[in-house]
Amino acid sequence: MILELVLVVAVISLLLYLFNENCRPSKFPPGVWRLPVIGSLPFLKMPLHEHFTTLSKKYGKIFSLYIGNFPTVVISDANMIREAFKLDALNGRPDSRVFTERSWGKKRGIIFNEGKDWTEQRRFALKNLRDFGFGKGTMEQLILDEVCSFREYLKKFTGSPVSLNREFNLPVLNALWHLIAGERFSFDDQRLRAIIKKLVDNFKAADAGGAIFFFPWFTKLAPKLSGWEAFFSVLKPTMTFLSEPVDEHRKTFNPDNLRDLIDVYLNEISKTTDKTSGFYKDDGDKTIKTVMLDLFVAGAETVSTTLNYSLLYLINFPEVQEKLQKEIATNIGSKLPSLSDRPKMQYLEAFIAETLRYSSFVPNGVFHCALETVEFNGYVIPKGTNIFPNLWQVHFDEAVWGDPKNFRPDRFIDENGHYKKNDNLMPFSVGKRVCLGESLARDEIFLFLTSLLQKFSFEPEVKGSPPSMEASKQGGLILQPQEYKVVLKERTV
Ligand SMILES: *[C@@H]1O[C@H](CO)[C@@H](O)[C@H](O)[C@H]1NC(C)=O
């Protein structure tokens, strides 16, 4: 009996060994073992970014694993990531239902698109957002309007501990939405709040290594169990919500007076005769809605998460908060902050950089996919391979940062007290797919933080025992802070 058992185990191990040795593409980076169908999943631990860091110590700054049948490469070095994302061949997106179902079964729009249509759409959106004030004074004014209303709105929360959960989403989204649809939302728009809540929950649920992404057959077989149903329950109401302004714009459209981004798209659609273009007729209609969804999701969630982490760090380090408030008092005083104050706010700049580094809340970036087989750093990355940049590890590499586990804005300050850039900080990713909204995001973070710190102080619920700075254990594309409350005190300056 025992002999037979040993024999069975031996045969299975041998088969597994042969499978792992022979079914690897040649010159594929070394890495984690896999099983047929489910890939390396049984050998991976959550949270993924931390496990990837352990694995890279064993296998190197570029290593491999399998998610289902998909070969996957994890890159954990800043220069290698920069090099990889310069290559057009490595700038695709994985073929996952999660990325295509939201755009009528096909890759469209900007975030999850690739190839020629992606290049065209990205360029078009960026150019027109700029024309409407993205990165210009108009945008600054729109943000400042939001900042002012938001400061008023926050006053009702002062004095006792509050969970400001999702309060940042709307004001942050509003400025961008103004450019897109020519309107803003009221801070207590209940329908929008419900959608944002669901979108954020979805982001959390969309576990980067989970079933939803990589086992399409499983999501079809067991829509409930796999989480597919929950994941997509939000899509329909969101799309209806986003379609309304498009329909409204159609009714009042005038090619001689393009009011906002939606008008510009409608204009382009009406001019397009090339049947293969993403702007052609019905495709154009789907493109515009996908782009709106992209901007909506990106605009609502990322900056507000940054602000959330900022507050968390401010209440953990009262001396940092005080220093920032002094910097504001010295350089801005009591007037409304503006982007022209930015060069004077060197410590704040360092604080923002450290916040982005320390939170690293998009720990594995948004993964890429190889469109062609390429040679890279002595290895071969076959077409169809997923590529994860482990940004978290880049931001916590001891060889680079010395004491990465300490929250220390001063690491970004030089001997003259000026902000000092570090090329290993890449929270917006790098290369051709670098976050399209980076400059808008930076403007928003700056204006919101200065204005809030000018008018309020932030304290923990229990004096002397601030909330944990560790992210919540829930995996996902975006790491959220743990639940915490903050006490707002109004300041007079
Ligand atoms: C930050 O996020 C946590 C977790 O979702 C929440 O409990 C907290 O209220 C948020 N804080 C702020 C200031 O938004």
TrEMBL record:
Residues 1-25 form the signal peptide. Keywords: Heme, Iron, Metal-binding, Monooxygenase, Oxidoreductase, Signal. This is Methyl farnesoate epoxidase. GO terms for biological process: organic acid metabolic process; xenobiotic metabolic process. Heme binds at residue 435. The keyword Oxidoreductase applies. Belongs to the cytochrome P450 family. Its cofactor is heme. Pfam families: p450 (PF00067). GO terms for molecular function: heme binding; iron ion binding; oxidoreductase activity, acting on paired donors, with incorporation or reduction of molecular oxygen, reduced flavin or flavoprotein as one donor, and incorporation of one atom of oxygen; steroid hydroxylase activity. GO terms for cellular component: cytoplasm.
